[in-house]
C-alpha cells in the first residue's frame, strides 16, 4: 500500500510530477494492500493459461487444414475430450498446489525486497531484470530437468509430463505436483537475487508462462517473433525432446539453447536435424515429394 494520501503528495515526495504510468499505478494501488497485489499472480497465471493456448487448440480441433503445414507432429491428433482433460488436470494441480503456494509465499517475496511503491522502474531497468530472470531460470531449469530424466526422477515424477509425446499449449504445466513445485524454484531465484518492482514481477510471471505455452504449442510458425530472440529454443526445439520421449538425453533447456550446447546435450537433436537435411536433399534431387517438416517422421534419435 502506498504511503501517500494523494497523487500530489506522492509527486512532492519524488520531487517531480508523476509519469502517466505512475499516475495509473497510484490510482490502482494506493489503497490495495501489498499481499493482495502479489496475489494478482494467481489471476494472471489462470488467465494466461486459459486464453493463450486457446486459439491454436480451436484451430486444431475445428479448422486443422489452416495450420497443418506448421504442425510439428502432424500424424498425432488429439480429440476435444483430450484437450479438455488436459486443461482440467492442470487446473486441479493449480487449485490444490499453485494457488495455495502463491498465498503462503508472500512473506518470502517481501523478504527479498520486491517493492510496490514509487517510482516505477524504467523500461530499460525492467528489460534488464527480465533478461537476468530468464537466464537464471533457464540455467536452473536445465539442471533440474536433466536430473528428472534420471531413472528415479523420470519414473516417479517426470513421466507425467511426457504423457504428451506431441505437446500442446495446455500441456505446458501438465506435470506431477512435485515437478510443479520443484521447477517453480528457479522462477523465484532471479527476483531474489535482483529484486524488482511488483509490476516487473507480474510481467515476469506472465512472460514465463507464455514462453512455456509457446514451446509446447506443437507448431513452428516461420514468422513467429520469437525467432528473432538470440538462442531461443522455441517449439521445434522442445518438441523434439517430447518426441524422443523418456529415453531423451537431449534438449533439456526450457528457454534458450546455450546450456544444451555447452554441456553437449543437444547432440541427438543436431544429428536429427542433419539427417533430415540430408533426406530433404536426397528427395529434392530425386524429384520425390515428402513431408519432412520438423520432427514429423518416425525416426528417433536419443
From TrEMBL:
- Enzyme class, one word? lyase
| Residues covered by the Fatty acid hydroxylase domain | 131-265
Q: Where in the cell is it found?
A: Endoplasmic reticulum membrane
Q: How does it sit in the membrane?
A: Multi-pass membrane protein
Q: Which Gene Ontology terms cover its molecular function?
A: aldehyde oxygenase (deformylating) activity; iron ion binding; oxidoreductase activity
In terms of superkingdom, the source organism counts as: Eukaryota
The processes (GO biological process) annotated in the record are:
lipid biosynthetic process
Q: Name one Pfam family in it.
A: FA_hydroxylase
Enzyme Commission code(s) on record: 4.1.99.5
Q: Which GO terms describe its cellular component?
A: endoplasmic reticulum membrane
InterPro entries recorded for this chain?
Fatty_acid_hydroxylase, Sterol_Desaturase_Related
Mark the transmembrane ranges: 37-59
Catalytic reaction annotation: a long-chain fatty aldehyde + 2 NADPH + O2 + H(+) = a long-chain alkane + formate + 2 NADP(+) + H2O
Record keywords: Chloroplast included?
no
Q: Which UniProt keywords apply?
A: Endoplasmic reticulum, Lyase, Membrane, NADP, Transmembrane, Transmembrane helix
Protein name, entry field: aldehyde oxygenase (deformylating)
Family designation: Belongs to the sterol desaturase family.
Amino acid at each position: 500500500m502506498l504511503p501517500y494520501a494523494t497523487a500530489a503528495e506522492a509527486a512532492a515526495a519524488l520531487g517531480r510530477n508523476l509519469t502517466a504510468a505512475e499516475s495509473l499505478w497510484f490510482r490502482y494501488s494506493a489503497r490495495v494492500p501489498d499481499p493482495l497485489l502479489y496475489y494478482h499472480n494467481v489471476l494472471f497465471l489462470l488467465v494466461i493459461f486459459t486464453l493463450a493456448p486457446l486459439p491454436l487448440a480451436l484451430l486444431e480441433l475445428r479448422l486443422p487444414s489452416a495450420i497443418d503445414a506448421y504442425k510439428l507432429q502432424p500424424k498425432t491428433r488429439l480429440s476435444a475430450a483430450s484437450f479438455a482433460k488436459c486443461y482440467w488436470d492442470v487446473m486441479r494441480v493449480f487449485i490444490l498446489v499453485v494457488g495455495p503456494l502463491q498465498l503462503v509465499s508472500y512473506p518470502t517475496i517481501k523478504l527479498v525486497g520486491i517493492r510496490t511503491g514509487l517510482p516505477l522502474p524504467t523500461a530499460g531497468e525492467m528489460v534488464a531484470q527480465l533478461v537476468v530472470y530468464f537466464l537464471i531460470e533457464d540455467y536452473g531449469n536445465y539442471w533440474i530437468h536433466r536430473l528428472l530424466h534420471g531413472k528415479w526422477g523420470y519414473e516417479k515424477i517426470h513421466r507425467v509430463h511426457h504423457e504428451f509425446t506431441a505437446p500442446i499449449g495446455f500441456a505446458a504445466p501438465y506435470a506431477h505436483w512435485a515437478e510443479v513445485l520443484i521447477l517453480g524454484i528457479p522462477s523465484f531465484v532471479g527476483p531474489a537475487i535482483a529484486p524488482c518492482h511488483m509490476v516487473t514481477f507480474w510481467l515476469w510471471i506472465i512472460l514465463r508462462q507464455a514462453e512455456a505455452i509457446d514451446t509446447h504449442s506443437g507448431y513452428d510458425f516461420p514468422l513467429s517473433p520469437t525467432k528473432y530472440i538470440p538462442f531461443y529454443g522455441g517449439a521445434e526445439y522442445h518438441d523434439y525432446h517430447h518426441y524422443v520421449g523418456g529415453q531423451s538425453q537431449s534438449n533439456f533447456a526450457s528457454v534458450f539453447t546455450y546450456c544444451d550446447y555447452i554441456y553437449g546435450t543437444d547432440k541427438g537433436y543436431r544429428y536429427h536435424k542433419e539427417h533430415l537435411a540430408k533426406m530433404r536433399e536426397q528427395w529434392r534431387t530425386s524429384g520425390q515429394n515428402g513431408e519432412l517438416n520438423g520432427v514429423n517422421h518416425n525416426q528417433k534419435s536419443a
